[in-house]
Amino acid sequence: MTAPYSLDLRERALARKAAGETHREIAAALQISPSCVSKWTRRERETGSLAPAQIGGYKPRTLSGECADWLRQRIAAGPVTLRGLTAELAARGIKTQPRAVWVFLHAEGLSFKKNASAGGAGPA
Predict the structure, then answer these.
(1) What residue ranges do the domains of the chain occupy?
(2) Taking Cα atoms as reference points, which of 45, 46, 58, 53 lies closest to residue 3?
(3) Segment 36-49, tens digit of pLDDT
(4) 104 Cβ partners below 8 Å, 6+ apart?
């Protein structure tokens, strides 16, 4: 996805509009589409700002708040697997995927690594 147009360009376009130019004239002079000018005009009228809207990140993470606190406590209690945590979360009514659990654990810096002393198959 491309980056939004700069605030400076948006301001220049609306300054030209205030001076009486048409959307098509502004678009040709600034090498943008006429729809940009109309959308920026509407945005300024509705919000009072020309700043671009947030790109991405609208959906809140499922594993946050009280659920995140529970996950931290559960990890501290002992060894688990991603699928095991996913199943425990499902039992608590939180529908999620192992990938989402991994992303949460990675972001929190939480992990459990197997080692030879934990009973795993190590070198003989």
Answers:
(1) 7-47, 66-111
(2) 53
(3) 999 999 999 999 99
(4) 61, 63, 68, 71
